[in-house]
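User: For my dataset I need records formatted as: sequence, then C-alpha cells, nothing else. Please produce one.
Assistant:
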Amino acid sequence: MQIFVSAAGELSIYRQIMRQITEAIAGGRLKSGDRLPSHRDLAEQLVIAPLTVKKAYDELEAEGFIETQRGRGTFVSAQLPEPDPDANREHLKAAARNLLSQTYLAGLGMKEAIAALREAEQEMAQGRRVREAVSAKKEKP
C-alpha cells in the first residue's frame, strides 16, 4: 500500500496518514493481520518526522484499527472496532456537509456530488476485488 501526503493538504499530515490507512481497511486493500511499515520506515519513505507517523499510528491503535506487537511490528487489528451507528451517522452528516460545501464552492451541483460518490465507491470496490483476486491466487496450490 502506498501512502501519499501533502504539506499543502487541508488535513494535517498525520491525519492524512490515518485517513489513507482507514480507507485502505474499509476498501479491503488492507485486511486483518496485514503488516504496516514501521513508523520509522514510513517516515523515511514520506520524508517526514518519525513522530508524525507515530502519532498517526498511536491514534489508529487507540481507535482499534491497528495493533503493535513488540518485536514483530504493526499490523491491522484482528478484531476491528465495532461500529457505533449513531456516531457514524453524525460523522457521515458532517462529511456530507463538507462534500456539498466543496461542490457548491466549485460551482457544481448535487448531480456531480453523487457522481463523485459513485466513482469513489467503484474505486474502493475495485481495490477490494484486486485484493481478493491476489489472495485467491496465493491460496491455490
